[in-house]
């Protein structure tokens, strides 16, 4: 009966778990199906801390976005933005600087349909369904062109996205395509599941994920830090998500391995 729900486009197969909807479930959202919940629960049974790690990642999104606003950024491009949840990027930045503009990009039809519903009355935001590999198509799209002035700094967000990108896709080359179009003073915020956090049973969790539409490509520090090529990492560099300028209790857990499960960093284009 998914066709009767206005956030479920007809092309969606609810029997195949999607990373966007599995993540939505871990965050406590309601835009997921039985197959998503089954996979999410299976991974939770292997690695119970994953739910806390997703919350840490959202808290990092907030801190990184506010850091960029404080640094003068007023326009944001969020790629692999996911299904809207509590504390969305446009809400975070427009609460402190209402003129901020945000374009969300995701290839998942549910993420895009739900974003469209949420953003209907917000003139300073837009959403585009696209694959991050389509760099020129995204940057030249009417959605991006109408919201983003590439002569001004942009906050490029790629949170928990690039571990869905195999090296065979040349993620460093893809990032270079975005970076070339960004004005000096632009920022890249990135998070990525760490292979060297020390968390136990990561291999089993990755194995379980194989039934989703994407197989995660887990990388260690060296594999992630190269994504900042052409950017200067701001302090404290690429670190466990909870260690990136934590401000309060919700930014950190009492489990050091979960604190380190997503790598997180922010780089500035000189
Ligand atoms: C784990 S969610 C992260 C959502 C959000 N960035 C966050 O950190 O809260 C990953 C998102 O990346 C999207 N995604 C994965 N591969 C993609 C690709 N090749 N192009 C665009 N989006 C992609 C998925 O659909 C999903 O919504």
- Which homologous superfamily in CATH is the superfamily? Vaccinia Virus protein VP39
Number of strands: 8
Number of domains: 1
Amino- and carboxy-terminal Cα gap:
51 Å
Give an account of the 3D structure.
The protein is an alpha/beta fold. It has a single domain, classed as Rossmann fold, CATH 3.40.50. It contains eleven helices and eight strands. The chain has helices at 19-26, 34-46, 50-70, 89-96, 109-119, 135-139, 142-147, 171-181, 202-209, 221-225, 256-259, and strands at residues 75-79, 101-106, 125-129, 155-159, 187-193, 232-233, 239-240, 262-268. Strands 1, 2, 3, 4, 5, 6, 7 and 8 form an eight-stranded mixed β-sheet that branches. The chain is globular. The N and C termini lie far apart (51 Å). The mean pLDDT is 95. Bound molecules: S-adenosylmethionine. S-adenosylmethionine binds at residues 19-20, 23, 57-58, 61, 80-82, 106-108, 111, 131-132, 159-161, 164. The site of S-adenosylmethionine has 19 residues, from helix 1 and helix 3.
Features:
270 residues; binds S-adenosylmethionine; Rossmann fold; 11 helices; globular; alpha/beta
Short description:
The chain is of the alpha/beta class. It is built from eleven helices and eight strands. The mean pLDDT is 95.
Q: Helix and strand layout, with pairings?
A:
Blueprint lengths: L18 H8 L7 H13 L3 H21 L4 E5 L9 H8 L4 E6 L2 H11 L5 E5 L5 H5 L2 H6 L7 E5 L11 H11 L5 E7 L8 H8 L11 H5 L6 E2 L5 E2 L15 H4 L2 E7 L2
Parallel strand pairs: 1-2, 1-4, 2-3, 4-5
Antiparallel strand pairs: 5-8, 6-8, 7-8
Helix pairs in contact: 1-2, 2-9, 3-4
This protein binds S-adenosylmethionine (SAM).
